Amino acid sequence: MYLNATLLAQITVFIILALFTMKYVWPPIVKALDERAAKISEGLAEAERGRQSLALAAKHSAETMREGKEKVADMIAQAEKRADQIIEEAKVQARIEAEKVVAAAKSEIEQEAARMRESLRGRVADLAVAGAEKILRREVDAKAHAEMLAAIKQDL
Amino acid sequence: MATGHEAATSAPNAGEYVLHHLGNLNSSGHPQTSMVDFSIINYDTVFFSAALGVIGLFLLWRVARVATSGVPGRAQAALEILIEMVGNQAKAIVHNEQSRKFVAPLALTVFVWVFLMNSMDFLPVDLLPFLWQTITGNPHAYLRVVPTADLNGTLGLSVGVLLLCFFYNIKIKGLGGWIHELFTAPFGNHPLLYLPNFVMQLIEFTAKTVSHGMRLFGNMYAGELLFLLIALMGMAFPSMSPFGGSLLWLGHLVTGTLWALFHIFIVVLQAFIFMMLTLVYLGQAHESH
């Protein structure tokens, strides 16, 4: 409980120690703390950005996928439609072709028939003349009755 | 003349033992007799406080010098916890960014230094005095190893804080402003109140400073005294019958352990209180009434 000059020495030591702490102990640690806090907040922001871009990419890829699927479905539908069309066209073509063939056959048949008729007509006339000739061999002169025979031939 | 620590031939009685332990190693060579004498200086208090301050701050500096903002080592992590704690307290109490650049490190210094000085109490009370007596060859040599159990040590700190309070009062409010406040606060600005105001301010500053220093001193002085009494109990055992003596020896062991454990708490608590009051007083210097 006795006061003496120790008091003054203590004050001096106190101030010197405090100044030392202020200059050499406090600032490096506080600087490190602040820097670390900045680093951490930077890292967190970075992570947040990464998460966002990941979500964006996922959304983008899903969209692309959906678009691709739609395109494929479109193409298939179009192809089916085209196939139907081709089949339809082919059917029509075939029918026309068939009709043509039928028509050609018909006309050929008709022509043949006409030709046959013509030749038959000729032959009938010949036969008739031949028959008549046999009957009339004796009494009919072919030359004298040619005019009449031509008229008959015309009527046939 | 006190007999000090002599051998069994003339063992000191209890009063002499305690008084001898409470005498400082000072420049006069014997315990101070007058209450105040500024021609005397306590070598032991100055040496131990300065040595502890230098060692403590050297350790902190060793850690701070290689501080990294990456993954901190254990020592750095511990120092960071300490600095965060002190920094947060300073931020809450002293509302001045510029002043905090000095006040916060000051508070850290106070905490670490007072903690180390208080911790000298954990050394056995007779260890360093005995070594000193052996080294000097003088069995009556005085030595006190707890700087905060010396009123000069604690009042030195609290007066230092008082001077810093004056400094910040003048710095923040200006010399005129502070003098104005000394005469117009706390009761009000009226010529009749100038004197009561000033007296009140004087009492306030004195009470703050004295209680600041005395609180720490009282705690550490009482702690030291109790360790001395416990040591006395153990020392008395050869003079008693074997049974009573062994009980005393056991009592020394039990009470010494208990008090040392409890003292760990006091040491930290008083260092913390001293730091907090330092911040509070310096914070008050920044506030106008």
Characterise this structure:
The complex is a heterodimer of chains A (about 160) and B (about 290). Chain A is mainly alpha-helical. Chain A has one domain (about 5-155). Chain A has helices at about 5-135, 145-155; one strand spanning about 5. Chain B has one domain. Chain B contains 8 helices and 1 strand; from the N terminus they run αβααααααα. Chain B is globular and about 75 Å long. Mean pLDDT of chain B is about 90; it is low at about 1-10. The interface of A and B includes residues 5, 6, 10, 11 and 33 of A.
Low-confidence stretches of chain B: 1-9
Counting helices, strands and paired strands, the structural category of chain A is: mainly alpha
Q: Could you give a short account of the major beta sheet of chain A?
A: none
Low-confidence stretches of chain A: none
Helix content of chain A: over 70%
Give the tally of β-strands of chain B. 1
List the helices and strands and how they pair.
The complex is a heterodimer of chains A (156) and B (289).
Chain A: E1 3-4, H1 6-136, H2 146-155
Chain B: H1 14-21, E1 36-37, H2 43-65, H3 74-93, H4 97-119, H5 127-136, H6 151-184, H7 194-235, H8 242-285
Helix pairs in contact in B: 1-7, 2-4, 3-4, 4-8, 6-7, 6-8, 7-8
Keyword list:
heterodimer, A: 156 residues, mainly alpha, 2 helices, B: 289 residues, 71% helix
